[in-house]
Amino acid sequence: MSSSNETPISLTRTRTPHPRPADSSLSFGKVFTDHMFVMNYTEEKGWHDPRVVPYAPFSLDPATSVLHYGQAIFDGLKAFRGADGTIRLFRAQRHAERLNKSARALCIPELDVNLVRRSFEAIVAADHEWVPSTPGTALYIRPTIIATDVMLGVHPSHSYTYFVICSPVGAYYKEGVKPVRILASDNHVRAVKGGLGEAKTAANYAASLSGQAEAEKQGYTQVLWLDGVERKWIDEVGTMNIMMKIGDEVITPPLAGTILDGVTRNSILQLLRDWGHKVSERPVSIDEVMAAGRNGTLKEMWGTGTAAVVSPVGELGYKGENIKIGGGQTGELTQKLYDAIVGIQYGRAPDAHGWTTPVKVTVAA
Ligand SMILES: *Cc1c(COP(=O)(O)O)cnc(C)c1O
Predict the structure, then answer these.
(1) Which of 35, 89, 106, 342 has the lowest CB atom count within 10 Å?
(2) Is 354 a domain residue?
(3) Residue 364: predicted pLDDT
């Protein structure tokens, strides 16, 4: 039950529920559930009218500011159905807090973090039947905020729409965790200090497309982003945070202005520290990594993010040189981290840090 001082979230159920696709047919982000969460902002009313309504298209004036200047933020988290039938959200509070951090970076008025967390719970409760149950599957939750002023002047909008949509997603790794080939780009950059790198915003994704396309053209799966000033320091990989094990040190670049504070990154760093590993959040250059690759001390490298949890790097290309990492296989620590996180998400392993929250489902009579 919600306490009396909490803003009520209204619920309007769809009259035309859709058939749910079979778990085996699920991919990523192609099918959406029957409902969505919506809330509006105006200067007079602040954030208001939180509601769960039938999933439906928006009608937007062609001059709506988000369509022109990209004042938009989003986040992404998952709900998992455990073997016991319980649906759990993974680190909902941290995702809600990060949405607010992105809002600040894009001059979007902050939300009540508690209400954002409740919006996740409300939409998952309404569409709980859509949470798939096959191991590896999940319900992906996508909160988004868009600027809705109808105007072509360049300034922060005075009105916004917050919405949350959900998509049942298939297992990221259908045949076990699989390493990828990545290319360190020396001519495309994703973010610079003082820019938007720390925010989860549409603009960063737009900025990543040409670098990604170039990597694919050269036969790689992902881009390894280097810093925008010296083109030397490793930032992120694709739309994931990056980690590597050199000797017995696990290294990840620090949160110093260009990197997104990934929830998976944070969770993995916590587990590594729990397990007594030597962990460094420090700048790491592409030259250091290539040298470690040549002399055999680069043991493992992996990306981290909600979609995949971990994505092992089997091969790294830079300036025409390619180095194989761990014989192109998934590293032992990478696999152990994957298993540990997934175990917590599906409620199979103890949740020592209180990362999961069960979603209360009231079944309609
Ligand atoms: C979302 C995202 C990540 C991963 O964050 P998680 O919270 O772990 O999903 C990393 N880098 C970028 C640029 C992102 O947008």
Answers:
(1) 342
(2) no
(3) 56
